[in-house]
Amino acid sequence: MKNKKIRFLLCLGGVLLSSLLQTYVIKAFIQPSNLLSSGFTGVAILIDKIASLYGHSISTSVCILVLNIPVALACYKSISKKFTLLSTIQFFMTSLLLKVCEFNPLFNDLILNVVFGGFLYGISVVLALKSNASTGGTDFIALYVSNKINRSIWEQVFIFNALILCIFGYMFGWIYAGYSIVFQFISTKTISTFHHRYERVTLQITTQDPENVVDNYVDHFRHGISCIQGYGGFSKKKMYLLITVISSYEISDAVHCIQEVDPHAIVNVLRTEQFYGGFYQQPMD
């Protein structure tokens, strides 16, 4: 119970840091450069810009809440209550911080704003994802679909964002839409680089104590494991090769589980390009 509370507090801290960083990027990089961010935050900014053409003003902060709350309610049962709660805190805090915080631009150069802003925006999303949350909106949708098909769809999210940017470019100028596409491409690639929940790896474990290693592994993980008998080419001793496929984020836990039983076990981690058959994907808490 104590560990769960500590984990929740760490996740909450990551979510708050994500909100602060996202707000900083919007205030210091996106708005001064007339860029458009990704997801529902970008849609909220676009709605405000369109309203300004007709002499009206629609608060970006309010619009973020209006767009995200229905999606959060829809995903409440289909994803996870804890995940939805933390994600709601994230976009609510972003909305609040946009109202109360002001940040000065870091660069006066448009290209630097695009490059560094895109990278930092992607990091803000990664912080939320690592904290078992999201920044709401299209992240909710992306994670819901990814959980169903067991692979990342951030590239498809980028296509959706590009379509929004086409509207932005048509109404406010293609040069800023073009820079915004580069901004979103960098942020999307940053997310794909640092968020590996749906990547799989193959573990090849060489051990002389297969039964205990397998028993301990099966107790902690819901993945199959195969055992092949052989011998060491150098030592000529009987050896066993264990093979299993896991998600990349489980590597450290799996290696610890194996070495806990056999400190002399050799673990080789191989990237799995394709996998066919049943695979257990741990649900989000």
From TrEMBL:
It is a multi-pass membrane protein. Keywords: Cell membrane, Membrane, Transmembrane, Transmembrane helix. The chain crosses the membrane at residues 52-76, 83-98, 110-129, 157-179. It comes from the Bacteria. Its main location: membrane. Pfam families: DUF2179, YitT_membrane. Residues 223-277 form the DUF2179 domain. It is found in: Cell membrane. InterPro entries: DUF2179 (IPR019264), N-reg_PII/ATP_PRibTrfase_C (IPR015867), UPF0750_membrane (IPR051461), YitT (IPR003740). Coiled coil: none annotated. PANTHER family: UPF0750 MEMBRANE PROTEIN YITT, UPF0750 MEMBRANE PROTEIN YITT-RELATED. This is YitT family protein. It comes from Amedibacillus hominis.
